Predict the structure.
Amino acid sequence: MAPLGERAALGQLVLKLTAPGVPDIYQGDELAYRALVDPDNRRPVDFDWHQAQLRRLMGGSPVVDENRKLFLILRLLGLRARRPEPFSGGYEPLDAGPGVCAFVRGGDVMTLVAVRGDEPGVAELPGGRWRDVLSGEERSFGSPGSVAALLGEHGFGVFERL
């Protein structure tokens, strides 16, 4: 169950940080937190540990299960800071099949998140050169394109137009 829960939690985080609106992250909830209750802002937070993990990621340390959530926050908030224009307006939904939530923000940021176990299909992708925000890999898209090829091992992908 843990891998499915992590996949769902990370997908929700990707949507929260790329969908319209202001993302809300509980203080101290930037790293994996395994509990059967909602995060509680009153619990003590080991800020030194959080900062050490952030410094490691920023220094090029590998992403592991423990810091994957922090890595996503770092990359996606960095994207929002670097490219505020796409996040200042609405979004254009992409038809990527019933098991995928997909949209483009401002024509320059594309998000795809598998939300069910359905096999992703084919989508009409916006053409051009794109960079995977999480891996740095550059790709060219043309319509139609395979959604499965865009989703990483955790079931999501975020791309910025070059």
In short: The chain has a mean pLDDT of 88. The longest helix spans residues 2-18.
